[in-house]
């Protein structure tokens, strides 16, 4: 019996594009709400669930299949952030979450995000590092605000900038596949 080498090539799309797009679009809306430009919470809830949550879940699961533990964990974990954040906002049971509880919730996510930021430093993608540093600043500035220190619209501005950086990261991957040469 002879042995035959079979080469299987991965022809699936780069699902990080979808993950960054989900983060970007949900964060941009959340940032605009934090700046007072969007006043309807349902817009944030909808984007959190259907864009941030589902897009990052799909991206994370696809990247898991590809063996990319870092991206799979990041996208899947942050998809769960969006789902849980939306649930906190809609509060179907009892009273809305208090400011201190939200601060602790965001602090835990900030610590997790910082761990991913440290890991990203070894991956070499400047746009990923920028997104994660801005995500850290988003979580920590919002944490401080919920602990009662008035930062005005600063957390919203940081969130908006982070969303725009994630949008750049998503689009740069797509446009580079189309033949453009954007830094990534």
UniProtKB/TrEMBL annotation:
Major place of residence: membrane
GO molecular function: acetate:proton symporter activity
Alphabetized UniProt keyword annotations: Membrane, Transmembrane, Transmembrane helix
Signal peptide from the UniProt entry: none
UniProt topology in membrane: Multi-pass membrane protein
Intracellular or extracellular location(s): Membrane
Keyword Zinc: no
Listed GO CC annotations: plasma membrane
Tree of life domain: Archaea
GO biological process, one term: succinate transmembrane transport
Ranges annotated as spanning the membrane: 12-32, 38-58, 70-90, 102-121, 128-147, 153-175
Family statement: Belongs to the acetate uptake transporter (AceTr) (TC 2.A.96) family.
Protein name: Succinate-acetate/proton symporter SatP
């Amino acid at each position: 019996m002879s042995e035959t080498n079979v080469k299987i090539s991965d022809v699936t799309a780069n699902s990080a594009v979808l993950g960054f797009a989900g983060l970007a679009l949900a964060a941009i809306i959340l940032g605009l709400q934090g700046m007072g430009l969007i006043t309807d919470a349902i817009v944030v809830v909808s984007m959190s669930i259907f864009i941030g949550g589902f897009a990052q879940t799909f991206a994370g699961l696809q990247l898991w299949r590809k063996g990319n533990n870092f991206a799979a964990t990041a996208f899947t974990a942050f998809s769960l952030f969006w789902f849980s954040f939306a649930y906190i906002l809609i509060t179907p049971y009892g009273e809305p979450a208090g400011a201190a509880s939200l601060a602790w919730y965001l602090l835990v996510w900030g610590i997790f995000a910082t761990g991913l930021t440290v890991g990203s430093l070894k991956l070499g993608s400047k746009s990923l590092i920028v997104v994660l540093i801005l995500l850290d600043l988003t979580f920590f500035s919002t944490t401080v605000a919920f602990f009662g220190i008035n930062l005005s619209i600063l957390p919203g501005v940081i969130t908006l900038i982070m969303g725009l950086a994630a949008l750049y990261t998503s689009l740069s991957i797509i446009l580079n596949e189309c033949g453009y040469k954007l830094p990534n």
